[in-house]
Amino acid sequence: MGYFDERKNVDDYIKMVEDYEADELIAILKKHLPAGSTVLELGIGPGKDLDLLAQTYTVTGSDSSNVFLDLYHEKHPSADLLMLDAVSLETERTFDCIFSNKVLHHLPKPDIPRSFSRQRELLTDGGLLMHSFWYGDKEEEFQGLRFVYYTEDELLNIIGSGFEVVALERYKEEEDDDSFYIILRRT
Ligand SMILES: C[S@@+](CC[C@H](N)C(=O)[O-])C[C@H]1O[C@@H](n2cnc3c(N)ncnc32)[C@H](O)[C@@H]1O
Questions:
Q1: H-assigned helices in the chain
Q2: Ligand 1: which atom is nearest the Cα of residue 68?
Q3: Ligand 1 mean position, distance from CA 37 (Å)
Q4: Nearest-CA neighbor of 38 among 77, 78, 93, 117?
Q5: What is the pLDDT of residue 75?
Q6: Burial zone of 6 (CB within 10 Å; 0-12 exposed, 13-18 middle, 19+ buried)
Q7: Options 3.40.1190.20, 1.10.599.10, 3.90.226.10, 3.40.50.150; which CATH number does 3-186 get?
Q8: 103 alpha carbon – ligand 1 mean position (Å)
Q9: What is the dihedral of CA 177, 20, 108, 117, to 10 degrees?
Q10: Ligand 1 centre and the CA of 46: distance in Å?
């Protein structure tokens, strides 16, 4: 059972991010992805990003935690939701963009190449990925929840071929330059 499969951990996380606004990342995505495109979000958590993405795009939310998915479904009964693991991504559907915000750092580092190659298979021609990461080179575990920090170079090396970099920039989540986002286009 994963950390976010427990209701208490989900409730604590929701409380922790209550005041957090994610609109900056989505404003950047909008510069690169036309309105009306189909977007799959990995790891929706409480669904703040999904709500924002839905204002511009045709969205599908996903998470590996049924607790988060059920809570979102209660508030948005007609939302298009999938229970998906961000590595195996077991779906036949395709999307113009796959987005995640602070999710892929929970994967074991050796699973990152498989996740990106599965994501590539789910993208339409010329489709985009946008993901955010904590910047750094350490690895931590907090109550069984893994946090893998990346530098831009290390991440690009691990992802390998099949994409071109559209945008890559550090930003501040809690402290200056503690995070970066990457936008990749399927080649
Ligand atoms: C730190 S939260 C971020 C949630 C949301 N994106 C946000 O910005 O508030 C991480 C989310 O990733 C999900 N997650 C963790 N590991 C996952 C995996 N292997 N596949 C899919 N989702 C995963 C968790 O259930 C949780 O919803």
A1: 7-16, 23-32, 48-54, 66-75, 112-122, 152-159
A2: 27
A3: 22
A4: 93
A5: 97
A6: middle
A7: 3.40.50.150
A8: 5
A9: -90
A10: 9
Atom of ligand 1 nearest to the CA of 87: 19
Strand-pairing partners, residue 98, are: 40, 129
What SS3 class is residue 105?
helix
- Confidence band, pLDDT 50/70/90 cuts, at residue 50: very high
Which atom of ligand 1 is nearest the CA belonging to 85? 20
| CB neighbour list of residue 49: distance below 8 Å, 6 or more residues apart | 22, 25, 26, 41, 99, 101
Residue 1: per-residue pLDDT = 79
User: What distance in Å separates the CA atoms of residue 179 and residue 169, rounded to the nearest whole number?
Assistant: 8
